[in-house]
Amino acid sequence: MTIELITNLMILLCSQIGFLYGVFTILIRERPLYLKMVVLAMACMMVGRIYVLLQYVTKGTVPDGFNVGMLGLLGCFLFLFSANYGMIDGLADDGDIEYLKYRIISFIAPVVLIAIYGSVFFLKGFDINMIPYAVVILFIAIASRYHFKHIIFPDIEHGIVRSIRGYNVVALLLCVFTALWIVFDLTGHTYMYLICGILVSICCIIIIPLLKKEATKWTTI
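Above: the chain sequence. Below: its structure as tokens.
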């Protein structure tokens, strides 16, 4: 059993645990749509890893290039972005010029992640397989901006941002570790790939329980 297979299996199991916990505690109960979207993010992560493992079982190799596993990663971070941008950001940020500095500072997260991915071009040179991963990294970077923003942004009125800062920290770490995981996959650093996979798995298994615990502070629940 290869390290790539072990890593993907570990992420699958942890994202599946997170998803199933979310199904039984969030999706089948009357919970805010925000929480449900994060559960669906874990579902995408899980489905993507299922495809990779099935590919290995049937063909004996981990897929390279564009594949359904990438779509699972893309869907995961698209749901995380949509939840924060579409449902929380408008409540947290009223557009006041006083908070402009926090909006600008929040771009640090996506810039850093894109720079990390850009380092692959210097370490490895251009490869056609880097193009679809670049799309995934773009969505990870966009999601990371709002997670970072909601960590540093002052809670103006509703208490929504303050109550889920722990979740946003874990989600931001998930963005960072997934980006590094992709980078080490492309550059062939097998053991760093495994370490980042372990960190991604930890984030996947704790993110839903943590969000559920913190979101109970919302008056809307």
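The mean pLDDT is 86.
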